[in-house]
Design goal:
Elements (H helix, E strand, L loop, with lengths): L1 E2 L3 E5 L10 E8 L14 E5 L4 E11 L8 E8 L15 E4 L4 E4 L10 E8 L13 E4 L5 E11 L8 E8 L10 E5 L2 E5 L1
């Protein structure tokens, strides 16, 4: 993240070649409109963050055998320091669990580019589910039935801005306990007798 009007430094000095040395660097702007990159052929380059948005930068390097690497990419988010940025809700990835088990919803990955997240608001699309700690980063519930359940998360930052609602799915199954079965058969006078 960088502020509008600032100089963004790009550092490719960590590039390496396991069987030789790095002889060339090539920085490229993949975004539209293109952003001019100063020292685009050096290990360290830079560009001016002239407008708000996301700038995607690519770097590839060449070794002393003239072999080029696969390009690596980085996204730089440019923000206006005078305008509050809305926070971003992150409800986590798909959750799996069983009926009767306590299932946690983890929104701790939610963040705010220019401040802090101050409150959380979890909701369930299934009104039969009761959420515990729905106003915390980590909420929980105990499913009474199997199925796929969706939960929404909205967060608020320290300036009162609310995020878009984002969703996560919890896939709940019945837990089947294994049953051992013993089978015993005997043969007696042409008749097979058995017990199960």
């Amino acid at each position: 993240v960088a502020n509008k009007g600032s100089t963004v430094m790009l550092d490719g000095s960590g590039s390496n070649d396991p069987d030789g040395t790095i002889s060339a660097w090539e920085w490229t702007c993949l975004s539209t409109p293109k952003v001019p990159i100063a020292d685009a052929d050096k290990a360290s380059a830079s560009f001016q963050a002239s407008s708000v948005g996301t700038v995607r930068i690519s770097l590839r390097v060449k070794d002393d055998s003239n072999a080029w690497s696969t390009p690596d990419q980085v996204d730089v988010t440019i923000i206006d320091p005078n305008v509050n940025q809305r926070p971003i809700a992150d409800p986590g990835k798909t959750i799996t669990g069983y009926v009767g088990q306590t299932i946690q919803l983890d929104g701790s990955g939610s963040h705010d580019l220019d401040g802090t997240v101050t409150s959380y608001e979890w909701s369930s699309l299934d009104t039969s589910i009761r959420l515990a700690d729905a106003d915390k980063d980590i909420a929980s519930f105990v499913p009474a039935k199997a199925g796929d359940f969706r939960f929404g998360l909205i967060v608020t930052d320290n300036d009162g801005a609310r995020s878009d609602q984002r969703f996560v799915t919890a896939q709940i199954a019945l837990k089947i306990l294994g049953v051992k079965t013993a089978v015993e058969f005997g043969y007696d006078g042409g008749v097979m007798n058995g017990t199960l």
